[in-house]
Design a protein that fits this description.
Length: about 290
């Protein structure tokens, strides 16, 4: 099986998350293809890992990749906030969040995360979820659409884009990534059309966040992880955009009675890593320890 995802800041994560006992428990809240988990399982021969992911397809890849570790690895299919809500197992020594989605989603999933290929607009990590990106672009009223695009995409032309989407709906359903990318392209001013990133990139990010409720899950999950963390245990969080990072930063700052912040400034990838994996460029790592 091929793995398309390059695990971000693997060395930095390993240097902060050092188990204090031989059979320590790591909860990897965003298992993905299992790259980070594999690095931990290889480095610490008695470490145990619980790996959470809501996406069944990518989790299958991780399961097969990590099958050689036997009972030391356990996969759980859940949203990470729901996992912590119902967790009644032993307290964790180490917790990792590597937020967002994986290269697998852009390149292989066929669910319309990337605007490079023309695919059905879906964007659900959980294929049992009732609302897809197609539902949102075809059903939300203009104001709600503009709010999503503005709040989750930080897109300054959100109103023009929402108006163009609603206009296009009068002539038929918007079904593919290409349909949507073309609408956005035409809706924005000419000088905005040929920048480094495609003008629809932020709209796509916004829809993905809305479909999967990505931002609203972070705080309750951090709360749950903190509650089920041993004293002296550590939580590391990798974020990929300012909306995520703001939530994590404020969460940690408001709980300094319980959590010691180990990264006064977020750790960022080395220049070398950014060159090898351009997707890591915006990554920030924050780590705390339970007092
Ligand atoms: C950036 S990838 C993780 C990559 C992984 N660290 C690796 O090295 O292969 C994030 C993963 O978390 C999953 N995910 C994102 N938000 C989630 C949530 N709220 N609950 C559960 N899984 C989530 C995505 O499906 C994706 O597979």
């Amino acid at each position: 099986m091929d793995f398309v995802h390059y695990s971000v800041m693997k060395n930095e994560v390993l240097s902060f998350l050092v188990p204090k006992s031989e059979d320590a428990l790591l909860v990897d809240c965003t298992l993905g293809e299992g790259g980070h988990s594999e690095a931990f399982l290889q480095k610490y021969p008695s470490l145990r890992v619980i790996g959470i992911d809501r996406d069944r397809s990518i989790q299958e890849k991780a399961r097969s990749r990590l099958s050689g570790f036997g009972a030391r690895f356990q996969a759980v299919n859940a949203w990470f906030n729901d996992f912590w809500d119902s967790y009644n197992g032993e307290d964790a020594d180490l917790v990792l969040f590597d937020l967002g989605i994986s290269m697998f989603h852009f390149v292989e999933s066929g669910r319309g995360f990337s605007l490079r290929n023309s695919e059905k607009l879906d964007m659900r990590l959980d294929l049992d979820a009732p609302v897809s990106a197609m539902d949102i672009v075809n059903r939300y009223d203009e104001k709600s659409l503009a709010d999503v695009i503005y709040n989750y995409g930080e897109e300054r032309y959100s109103r023009r884009i929402a108006a163009a989407i609603c206009d296009m709906r009068k002539t038929g359903r918007i079904e593919t990534t290409k349909d949507l990318a073309d609408i956005v392209f035409r809706a924005v001013p000419k000088e905005y059309r040929y920048k480094r990133i495609h003008p629809a990139t932020k709209t796509f990010q916004a829809l993905r966040i809305e479909v999967n409720k990505e931002l609203t899950r972070i705080e309750p999950a951090l709360e749950g992880a903190m509650k089920h963390l041993k004293r002296g245990g550590r939580i590391a969080v990798i974020t990929f955009h300012s909306l995520e990072d703001r939530i994590v930063k404020w969460f940690f700052r408001q709980r300094t009675e319980t959590l010691e912040i180990l990264t006064k400034k977020p750790v960022i990838p080395t220049e070398e890593e950014c060159e090898t994996n351009s997707a890591s460029r915006s990554a920030k790592l924050r780590v705390v320890e339970k007092r």
